[in-house]
Amino acid sequence: MHKLRTTTLHAAGALLVAAHLAGFGNGARAAPAANSAPQARTDVYGIVNLVPFQPFLAHVNARGQAAFEYIGLDYRTHVGFFDGQRVLHPIVPERSISFLGALNDGGEVAFVASYVEPGEPWNTTLQPFRWSAARGLAQLPSRGAEFDNWIPAMNNKGVVVGGAYIGSDPASARAVRWSAANGLRTLPSPPGYSTSYAFDINEHNVSVGSTDAGGVSHATRWDSANRPTVLGTLGGTYAIAMYNNERGDIAGMLDGGTLDARAFLWSPDRGVAIPGPNAVVVGLNESGEIAGRIVDPAGGSRAFLYSRARGLVDLHPASLLVSEVNGLNDDGVSVGLAWGSDGGRRAWRWLRSGAGVDLNRRLVNPPAGLELASALAIGANGDILAESNAGLVLLRRGGGTDAPVLGPINLPDPVLNRPLPLALSFRDRNIGERHTATVDWGDGRGPQPATVREANGSGEVSAVHTVTTAGEYNIFVRVTDSLGKSTLQYVQQQIGFRAVAAPRATRARPMH
Fold first, then answer.
1. Three-class SS of residue 16?
2. Nearest to residue 497, comparing CAs of 475, 474, 467?
3. CB-based contacts of 142: which residues, under 8 Å, 6+ apart?
């Protein structure tokens, strides 16, 4: 449920990352240890490193657990899950491509995945799965092994909705629902309607999406008994319902993908409200607020929050050029990004009042060099998932982790047959602990000891290595504290020849 809007480098690339991540661990949320440095517990965030790779979609639940999709060393997308202490993989990454669907407050993850064959990474279809740490992996039924599936939402009862192809024609897509017991049901369309999609489901098992008639999409609502009600185009040329909440509000888009695109908010007793032209909605909360961005046809965008009571609240930071919302919670707190004329992105948070702040200014003792580029999602408890130059991180409101917190790996421009120095900054809130570190330079020698210098919970890792053979090296640094908790960091480095841009990673797109 969306209440909180929230290639191969080497044949063994995925095996390598899986092996490294298998030893990854983070401390659970806990009170500071007796030897921890005192910290103010106001409007600040502790940092938890999740994966040191490029993230895409991410969700965080009310328990501070996270599900996310990232690009691995094999340039394929993989789904990871953070249970509050460590990162787990719902499906074995080295032989699969997986795309995140949804996460609920019970820690269940819904996603689609395909198993790959060497040299033919797209020769199998995307099939639906459900996973939890308690119950393990279950493949959900589909309309056929030869057709793709798509999952965007799941509620806290474990009911999943999405879409499934029933033929090779793209118009064969149908809205589907999987029960908590994994039963599959195609959501019916009224006579005269064909292609359909389900985008969201609330705790009453009411689903929303779209059905097509004559090539025109109509916003559609299915009740808990799966009976459809077509809301129509709601004043647009076509309409898609994307989000719904417990009180029956529905948000979506009219004429999406066109110059006339605009968000809508529909309520059973009040009809349709339009925040304004060129508004794109990314979330709906239980208070009936929607958040997103106003797109300037000439380029750029401005973050907004909208409700019937207050109208449009402009969230855009006055000193910056572009801003976007990526997630919204029930307290009206939204997160996203903003950037200025220098092109640098910064993760941003806005309160319901419209007051905003650069999240880089709210971090508790961050390691040197760490920068948050974009906030991807926010949970009911205020925890935030953010993209950084150290990979995906969890920002715990007023808390943190008992594992080391790592910044990015710093390397100068490498030269063959010359010493290559590496440096990395780390922090640990348990200031009495001592740390060791290793560096795997990706040359087949495995992890090598590195030098650690530290004092009062702040430390630096350093190492020097001479590369004698040109190539593409996957470099891993692991920092481990005296209680055995460790954190991993990674960088890919081209050495000895001109760098070539990596193939663009591909991820699943909505079937609409």
1. helix
2. 467
3. 127, 128, 149, 164, 184
Please name the residues in contact with 479: beta carbons below 8 A apart, sequence gap of 6 or more: 404, 406, 424, 426, 435, 436, 437, 452, 459, 461, 486, 487, 489
Tokens representing residue 128 in the block: 């639906």
d(CA 342, CA 380) in angstroms, rounded, equals 33
Residue 16 has phi, psi (to 5 degrees) of -65, -50
Neighbour-count burial for 441-467, b at 16+ CB within 10 Å, e otherwise: bbbeeeeeebebebeebbbbbebebeb
At 29, the pLDDT band (50, 70, 90 cuts) reads: very low
- Pairing state between β 345-350 and 356-358: antiparallel
| Cα–Cα dist 213/226, whole Å | 19
Proportion of the chain in helix, strand, coil states, percent, rounded to 5: 5, 45, 50
CA atoms within 13 A on the CB side of 371: 8
Q: What pLDDT, in 10s, does the model give residues 174-194?
A: 999 999 999 999 999 999 999
Sorted by sequence, the CB contacts under 8 Å of residue 72 that are 6+ apart come out as 13, 14, 17, 53, 78, 93
Which residues are bridge partners to 271 per DSSP? 267
The C-alpha atoms of residue 61 and residue 316 are separated, in whole angstroms, by 26
Tokens read off for 291: 């958040």
Task: Determine contact, residues 141/119, Cβ cutoff 8 Å.
Answer: no
pLDDT for residue 435 is more than 60: yes
- Provide the 8-state DSSP code for 359: G
Burial zone of 149 (CB within 10 Å; 0-12 exposed, 13-18 middle, 19+ buried): buried
- Of the CA atoms within 13 Å of residue 396, those in its CB half-sphere come to 26
- Report how far residue 57's alpha carbon sits from residue 280's, in angstroms, rounded to the nearest whole number: 17
Q: What is the pLDDT of residue 123?
A: 60
Q: In this predicted model, what pLDDT tens digit does every residue of 10-28 receive, in sequence order?
A: 223 333 344 444 444 443 3
Rounded to two decimals, what is the model's pTM? 0.89
pLDDT, one tens digit per residue, over 252-262 is: 999 998 889 99
